[in-house]
Amino acid sequence: MSEDPVRKYLDGKAKLDKALSEVQKLASVVEPIGSALRRDPWHLIVSNIDVGFPAEVSLVSGIPTLNAQQWPNAKQIAETLAAMHHAQHEVSNLWATVPTKDKGNLTPPKQVY
Fold first, then answer.
1. From CA 50, how far away is CA 84, in angstroms rounded?
2. 5-39 and 74-97 helices cross at what angle (nearest 10)?
């Protein structure tokens, strides 16, 4: 006997929600640095990397700091975005399998394409 289509959809939706949360985590790391670069690049440093900054900048407390060990690389960003797209595709396909009588009790997936 196959698994309940509603349960499969809800599981897929939970997976999509997790993927979207991971994208938002990336944004919370990347966005503040982008803002600092636009606003005042003279007062921004990168830590935990073998590049030196002048003492006038590196010794100032409270300036924006990009921690190189926490910064995602392009591959990590791509993998996170790809996981989001795959989860969206899966949820859309699973929605199509939910019986019409059950769809009224569920939130349909957002149409992004």
1. 33
2. 150
Nearest Cα residue to 62 out of 40, 82, 79, 84: 40
DSSP conformation letters of 8-32: HHHHHHHHHHHHHHHHHHHHHHHHH
Enter the DSSP assignment of 99.
-
Burial class (CB in 10 A: 0-12, 13-18, 19+), 16: buried
All structural domains of the chain with their residue ranges: 5-100
Supply the DSSP symbol for 106: S
Sign of the alpha-carbon torsion through 28, 32, 38, 42: negative
**pTM beyond 0.85:** no
Residue from 80, 78, 79, 53 nearest 65 by CA: 53
Tally Cβ neighbours within 10 Å of residue 84. 18
Task: State the pLDDT confidence band at 1, using cuts at 50, 70 and 90.
Answer: very low
Nearest-angstrom CA–CA distance, 72 and 92: 28
